[in-house]
Every structure is written in structure tokens, then in C-alpha cells.
Amino acid sequence: MKCDIGFVGLGVMGKNLVLNLADNGFKIAAFDLDFEKVNAAIEQDAEENKHGNPRVIGCSSYTELLSKLKAPHLIVLSVPAGDVVDQVCHNLIGAGIQPDDIVIDTGNSLWTDTVEREKRYNENFIFFSSAVSGGEVGARFGPALMPSGSAYAWTRVKPIWQSIAAKVDGDTGKPLERTEPGQIIPHGEACADYIGPAGAGHYVKMVHNGIEYADMQIICEVYHVLREGLGLDCEQVSDIFAEWNAGDLNSYLMEISVEVLRHKDPESGAALVDLILDKAGQKGTGLWTAVSSLEVGCPAPTISQAVYARSISSFKELRIATAKKLTRPQTETLSEEQKQALISELHDALYCAKICAYAQGFQLMKLASVEHNWKLNFASIARIWRAGCIIRASFLQSITKAFERDSDLENLLLDSYFSDQLSKYQSNWRQAVAKATLMGIPVGAISASLSYYDSMCCETLPANLLQGQRDYFGAHTFERVDKAAGKKFHVEWSKQGRPIKPLN
Ligand code: 6PG
Q1: Can you list the domains of the chain with their CATH numbers?
Q2: Ligand 1 in contact with 135 (CB < 6 A)?
Q3: Would you say which domain of life the source belongs to (predicted)?
Q4: Ligand 1 close to Cβ of residue 283 (< 6 A)
Q5: Nearest CA owner, ligand 1 atom 14
Q6: ipTM (interface predicted TM)
Q7: What pLDDT shows up at residue 502?
């Protein structure tokens, strides 16, 4: 019997997606340049599905892969983003792929590459894309999926994608967890829905990752203040995070932070996190989000700051040298009461900074959607992110509701629920930023969110002076508040008032 899906790339994500597809009743023909990886998937399938027929068939060439599939063929790629995607596409063309066959790229591809690929392969096959979030566990038991491209392809992919995706209870927005091989969740809302034309899904996943960077950095900054400012150990921080995770701050990233902080090094018995070198890696999606925000002209300072925080962490040797040269403020010992106050201020700071990071990400997607005519549905995107993905969090249900109330919402800060939350907690947020700053502990992302909030609160910003400066040295012109909008003015600045002395 022919297979339902061809699968290329059996790395950790690929293998788990294959087993997830198999659990949901699909038969897979699998190919990887490293046949050991194909064997590993076949063995794991046999192990997990002892009494059933094999659900994964190994193939040793692209030609064999196509020959094992039902026509029209559906092939899923789980290969590294970049040139490898094109190499596989060319190999599939060489193997005889047909124009009505569909190839789905599930990697973290740059969205503009996806747009190009849809056009490039148009005559050979339908290039479809579906970004996947959730890491290896998500891939195995239910990821969040962000498909985009041909609407026809989506009609074929949809039943498969909605069966393997994470599910949530539609009323509460709470994830319906799958944890065991063989288990399926036939009910609930699937975290997989059509995002839009080619490139839109990868753009949305890119912004998801930008928010992920911001969310992670905000948690790390709070951890830093709790460790250095309050002198707490990893266990104590972990306990605080566990308590917060039971409330408004409930999220996957909080949950894993609790576990990372509790983890002990088996050799020394010390908290493992204390032994991890403080140089952050990055594969590029956060950077792409920051670059896109600059190109689109959308303020996303918390996301950009999170990228910078990773960059500054990577200059370890330089930081060791500068730390010897520069001075930090003397810190006072805090009383127990002061410590407890700062802990609750940090809670509120984390929450408010997080809201602002999401507000930036959603506004960025909105502006990109207008620019590229994608017609993104933000309630649907928030719904998809409620489970399965790395940024899943209880408050994604509140974001879903905000966009259900107003699908055209320009910025989350305009939604009454979020503006009320920010008003309620902003005083503690300011205290946390001020105290951390006085202690000399960097809280760049939390501060960036606060400055963003404060800018959004200001009807008038000092850009009037800036426009004056620009007009002074470059005759760049300015508009006036007391004249018709759009009318440009220029002034011979140095002719009025004191003459400017020449520099010598
Ligand atoms: C996900 C993750 C995943 C990965 C990113 C970020 O949604 O499953 O976002 O895609 O964590 O590639 O990786 P870096 O932190 O290395 O940039």
C-alpha cells in the first residue's frame, strides 16, 4: 500500500514530526541523506507501535521516495533553512516530481526566500510552507503550525496539519496536553490555521521568534536582579518563578525556567545554570525580526534589545576586561521587607514588559500585512500560539479576545483589558526598573518596554526639536502644529538670534 506523505530530513524535529503523523494515522515514506536517521525513525516507530503494522517506510533515494507515495504526492521537508531547501527541491525535480505535487518547507526559512521559492518552483510543483514551533516535544506531541502559500494546497494539507497540531479547549484556551506515544486528541481547536499567501507564515513565525527572544530576555533580567540584587540562590529563584507560573505569568518559558534553575550538575551537585557559560547563541530569527521592524518602521525596542542582549553576552572576554576597568554602584543590603517588595515589583515588571513585547510583535505583523497585502487574521494567530509553540502562555487567550473584540486593533495597548493591566501595574514596573538601575544590574529589555510604554503615553515627543535640528543642518523641512497637515516649512535658522561663531 502506498504512503500518504513523503518526508525528507529525519533530524530530531523531522523524526518527531514523522512519529506524530504516524500516531495520527498517516503512513510515511522517509528519506534522509544519513540512512542511520531513517533507521532510527523506523526503529522508534516499531518500538512505539509494537502490535501494529510499520507506519514508517525507509527510502534510499528521492526516486524511491516518490514511487512509494500516493499521487498527487505530498512531501514534507524538515531540513536546515537556506541552500539545503533548494538542493532538496532540485533533487525532487530530478526524481520526477509533478506540477500538482506539494512540497512543504517546515524549517525556519527567511520569509523572502519562501516568496521566491513559490515562484521559482511554480512550474515544477507547488511550493508550500509551514513554519513549526514547539521544539522536539512539540513536534512529537503537537506543535503550533503556521502554514501559508497556495490556498488549494492548504485544502489538501489542512486535515493532516490540524490532526497533528497542538489542541486547546476552545472555551478556556487551555492546552489539551498529549504526552504519550499513540495518544491522539480528536477534539479541541487545532493550533494550525492558514496564515496567508506565500511568505506570510514564515514572517509570522519570525515574529513569534522575535517575541520569544524578548520573553526569554525579560525572564533572564528578572533572574539577574533576583540573584545579584537580592542574593537569592537558584532554588529560591526557581520557587519564585514556580509561584508566578501559577498566576498571570503562566507560560511555557516560565515553566522551563523553573526546571532549568532546579537542575543540578551530576558531577558537582551545584546548580547547573551556574556552570553554563553566559554567552548566548542565536540562529538569526530574532535578528530578522529586529531588522524587519526597522525596515517596516515599526517600533519594536524590546525585541531589538533582546537581540542586543545576546550580542553583548557574546563579548565575554571584552566584558571581563571592561568589568575590571569600570565601576559599579555600591549596593546596600536590603531588609527582608524591601526584598519582598522588590520581588513583587519584579513580577509586575515582567508582566508589563511582556505585554509591550507582544504589542510590538503584533503591530509589526499588522504593518507588514498591510505592506504585503497578506490580510493576516490576528485573532487566529493568537489562537494558534495558545499551545504547542515556545511562547505559549495563558495570556495569549487575552490577546485572542482582544483581536476578537476588534480585528483591526492597531496596537494591543489600545485594548481596554491591556491598558487597564498596564495602568494597574506600572508603578511597580517603574520601581523595579529604578531599583535595578540603581544597583547597576542591566534590565535593557524591561526598560525598553517601559520607554516604549512611556512613549506611547506621550501625545508630544521631543521630535519637534529633532525636526528643527534636521532642518537646521540639512534643510529637511518640517510640518507645523498650527498649520495645515502636510505643508512643509524651512527656516534660515542662523539668521535669527545670536550669530553662530565659526569653529576653529
Ligand atoms: C520554536 C523555536 C525554534 C528555535 C529558534 C530560535 O518555535 O520552536 O523558536 O524555532 O528555538 O530557532 O533559535 P535561536 O535561539 O538559536 O535563535
Answers
A1: 5-198 (3.40.50.720), 202-454 (1.10.1040.10), 463-495 (1.20.5.320)
A2: yes
A3: Bacteria
A4: yes
A5: 282
A6: 0.97
A7: 63
